Amino acid sequence: KKISDILEKSAPKPGVPADLQNLLSQHFGENRSVIELEELKLSDSCFLPANDLTHSFSSYLKEICPKWAKLRKNHKEKKSVVMLVICSSALRSLELIKSMTAFKGDCRVLKLFAKHIKIQEQINMLEKGVFHIGVGTPGRVKALVEQDGLCLNSTKYVILDWNWRDQKLRRMMDIPEIKKETIDLLEMCIIKLCREGSVKLGLF
After folding, report:
1. Transmembrane segments in this chain: where (predicted)?
2. Which secondary-structure segment (H or E) carries 85?
3. Digit-coded pLDDT (tens) for 93-152
4. Could you tell me the pLDDT band of residue 29, with boundaries at 50, 70 and 90?
5. pTM, whole model, 2 decimals?
6. Which phi and psi (to 5°) does residue 201 adopt?
7. CATH number, residue 172
8. Which long-range contacts (CB under 8 A, 24 or more apart) does 43-49 make?
9. Domain range for residue 189?
10. Closest listed residue to residue 80, CA positions, set 135, 141, 153
11. By the 8 A CB rule, do 48 and 200 touch?
12. DSSP string, 131-167
């Protein structure tokens, strides 16, 4: 059975923290020790309220981040963003950037994907300016973190574009390459920051 056949018949269920936990334990279950798997566990307090599928992107962000105006004002660090949004493609990134207009107010948004944008350009922009929101694909975000172009220490929110489906009805975690890159990125730094309490994870 194709995933799209199954999905067409079932009403889409919004993603919940347990879905991400299960995904991580399935991904790492076979090659990690129990202790290593414990390190990847996230308590419910690491998560923001999940999207119940009634929200627009702006209304979801307003709900999870009511003090955005203040956070935005206080953010002065270069090479960093307050909010990082991870999605499956450049096209979807652009859609999300458009649809957060009502939320973002007067803040600078940086596109963090590979299509038509060289990584060095993004590194230069992050070094020179202060950006509040980064929206992009896990592969490019991971590369920026690895090359020290993006630092997540002052990031407060990481939002995964979890529920959205493409034309083939696949969510980002249904696409093997995107799933792997997202999990790599989570494992590389985001899970640790969540466990320390500095980052909250949201499933939109």
Report:
1. none
2. strand 83-86
3. 999 999 999 999 889 999 999 999 999 999 999 999 999 999 999 999 999 999 999 999
4. confident
5. 0.93
6. -100, 135
7. 3.40.50.300
8. 44/17, 45/197, 46/17, 46/194, 46/195, 46/197, 46/199, 46/200, 46/201, 47/17, 47/200, 47/201, 47/202, 47/203, 48/157, 48/159, 48/200, 48/201, 48/202, 49/202
9. 3-203
10. 153
11. yes
12. -SEEEE-HHHHHHHHHTTS---TT--EEEE--S---T
The residue type of 39 is E
Query: And the tokens for 8?
Result: 């067409």
The type of residue at 177 is: E
The Cα–Cα gap between 201 and 38 comes to: 18
The tally of domains found in the chain comes to: 1
Cα 30 to Cα 23, 27, 34, 37, 177, distances in angstroms: 13, 8, 10, 10, 19
Q: What gap in Å lies between CA 115 and CA 16, rounded to an integer? A: 30
Tell me which amino acid residue 97 is.
Answer: I
Residues 6+ apart with CB under 8 A from 182: 86, 138, 160, 172, 173
Contacts of residue 151, defined as CB under 8 A and 6 or more positions apart, other chains included, come to: 77, 79, 80, 145
Reading the block at residue 146, the tokens are: 């690895």
Per-residue pLDDT at 23 exceeds 70: yes
